[in-house]
Design a protein that fits this description.
This protein is 72% helix and 2% strand. With 217 residues, it is mainly alpha-helical. Helix 3 packs parallel to helix 5. Keywords: Coiled coil, DNA-binding, Sigma factor, Transcription, Transcription regulation.
């Protein structure tokens, strides 16, 4: 049977606001109440918030790079595609319930962009191989320069038909040999915007020339 003194000691703990010893049932409950992490609510992550962006970047960049590299097959391209996805995330002012939600969203964006990149490079490779094959066929016939001249003229005429905003980015990319970031600085637009315009310019140029594999001489 517990003594009255024991009961009074326990009562004094609660009356004075001091917690029970941890070994007791009430002591354990009191200890849990002093742990806010057990009841904390996950704060949404905002892509435009600097600290949230850093957290998303640190947690997702390694897996994004691996996914992109596996599909694109080029380290530099994979890094660019990952950064493009992060830029897209901030431009859309995305808000995620958790880091995992951000990761899965970014993986989808990177995967699709990497697939498009791989398809585009495959088309460019086929176009190059076809052009090389044609060049080899005509090198002994003395028609190489004529073919080159005709190709240049066709492309130039098609370029003139493009809207100015698309024509300029393609000229800077193909003939000015500027990268996407440099073109963005020249035109005062984002790097992601430059890539979209280059893609649309090539697409429209292909339709004008009548060949899906555009070869820029």
């Amino acid at each position: 049977m517990k003594s009255a003194g024991s009961w009074l000691r326990k009562a004094s703990y609660w009356k004075t606001g001091r917690p029970e010893p941890y070994g007791s049932r009430r002591g354990k409950a009191d200890c849990n109440l002093r742990r806010p992490d057990l009841f904390a609510i996950q704060k949404p992550l905002r892509a435009t918030d600097e600290n949230d962006f850093k957290e998303i970047y640190a947690e997702t960049m390694p897996v994004l790079f691996r996914v992109s590299l596996r599909i694109a097959g080029n380290e530099e391209a994979a890094e660019d595609l990952c950064h493009d996805a992060l830029i897209k995330m901030t431009e859309k002012n995305m808000v995620f319930p958790s880091v995992n939600d951000a990761k899965y969203w970014l993986i989808r964006v990177v995967k699709n962009a990497s697939l498009n990149y791989a398809k585009r490079k495959a088309r460019e490779k086929r176009a190059y191989e076809r052009a090389l094959k044609e060049t080899r066929k005509t090198v002994d016939s003395g028609e190489t320069e004529l073919m080159k001249g005709n190709t240049v003229q066709i492309v130039r005429e098609a370029l003139e038909k493009l809207p100015e905003n698309l024509r300029v980015v393609l000229q800077l990319k193909e003939y000015g040999e500027l990268n996407y970031k440099e073109i963005g600085r020249v035109l005062g637009i984002t790097e992601g915007n430059v890539k979209v315009r280059v893609f649309r310019a090539r697409e429209q140029l292909a339709k004008l020339i009548g060949d899906e594999d555009v070869y820029m001489p």
